[in-house]
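Lab notebook, design round three. We kept the backbone fixed and only want residue identities now. Task for the bench partner: fill in a sequence for the structure below.
Input structure tokens:
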């Protein structure tokens, strides 16, 4: 292949040849018109030339090693019968670039969450650390921008725990901040009123379980999706409990929710502190909890950044641009305040 704008031989240039035994896997490995190879070239900054069952990888030695690792990981996933869409390839590239170990940890053990519909694997080093935290702690906070997989991975873990019989039920919750005190004026029964705010949780479930199974388990109570207000006064035992969009809780709501944790229960709280929709002057319960609970035994905090966004690559750049703009605006406001003080 050629014409890769990210490719630069550099001073430490080398070429490696990587061969693949199973030629039936080459079409999905290379992609239609070699688009998967083009994606690796663009993201890693190497030159890939396929010939027969081999790929020549040229470029900076460190980048060549990353690209080789990516191709080996992709080939390994195809051998296991997994599909390679762009998101999966982006995830392999992201992990290989950050750790050099693809979707395996330092001991070579692959991290996979088993669900009824598909296996779920981490697509960034932070996602991998997040899954480890979910396995090891009773209360885990996933903090960071949208699109980083905070809620999706938590739901996947909850589903796998329910399938394995480690918990009896899954409870998913969100604060319906936009509805406020006007919830009663919305049309429909209570479920119809709050469902729009809970739709992302339904979407994650349907991605991991057959639709008829989701419907049955919602009916039986094995899976419960409810607004945060419905958690008051309950003890949530033998359950996997997830609170999404937690930046929109008040301190009292956050404390109420966390103290619902009962015997043999796990709790995950996710949110983006840059997207608080509470009325002006109201403190975010998530922000307060992040300060109060840091260092408490049994509690883990995992921070995602724009680099962990696993949606379209443009989303990551959008998040970066907004963060840079907000920092610039904050700096300008501080400068104006300082200037006002001097003039006085």
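Proposed sequence:
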């Amino acid at each position: 292949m050629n014409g890769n704008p990210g490719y630069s031989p550099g001073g430490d240039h080398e070429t490696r040849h990587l061969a693949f035994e199973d030629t039936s896997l080459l079409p999905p490995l290379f992609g239609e018109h070699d688009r998967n190879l083009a994606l690796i070239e663009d993201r890693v900054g190497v030159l890939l030339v396929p010939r027969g069952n081999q790929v020549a990888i040229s470029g900076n030695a460190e980048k060549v090693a990353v690209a080789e690792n990516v191709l080996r990981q992709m080939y390994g996933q195809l051998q296991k019968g997994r599909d390679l869409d762009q998101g999966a390839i982006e995830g392999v590239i992201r992990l290989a670039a950050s750790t050099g170990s693809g979707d395996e940890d330092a001991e070579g053990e692959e991290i996979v969450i088993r669900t009824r519909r598909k296996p779920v694997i981490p697509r960034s080093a932070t996602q991998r650390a997040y899954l480890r935290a979910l396995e090891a702690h009773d209360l885990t906070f996933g903090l960071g921008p949208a699109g980083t997989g905070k809620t999706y991975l938590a739901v996947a873990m909850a589903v796998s725990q329910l399938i394995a019989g480690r918990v009896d039920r899954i409870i998913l919750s969100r604060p319906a901040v936009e509805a406020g005190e006007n919830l009663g004026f919305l049309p429909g029964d209570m479920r119809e009123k709050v469902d729009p705010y809970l739709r992302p949780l339904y979407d994650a479930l349907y991605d991991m379980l057959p639709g008829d199974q989701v419907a049955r388990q919602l009916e039986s109570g094995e899976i419960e999706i409810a607004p945060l207000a419905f958690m008051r006064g309950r003890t949530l035992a033998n359950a996997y409990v997830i609170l999404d969009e937690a930046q929109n809780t008040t301190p009292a709501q956050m404390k109420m929710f966390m103290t619902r944790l009962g015997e043999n229960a796990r709790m995950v709280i996710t949110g983006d502190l840059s997207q608080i929709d509470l009325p002006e002057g109201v403190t975010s319960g998530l922000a307060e909890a992040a300060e109060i609970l840091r260092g408490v035994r049994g509690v883990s905090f995992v921070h995602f950044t724009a680099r962990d966004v696993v949606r379209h690559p443009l989303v990551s750049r959008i998040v970066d641009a907004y963060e840079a703009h907000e920092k610039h605006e904050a700096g300008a406001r501080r400068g104006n305040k300082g200037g006002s003080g001097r003039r006085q």
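Keep this in mind before ordering anything: The chain has eleven helices and eleven strands.
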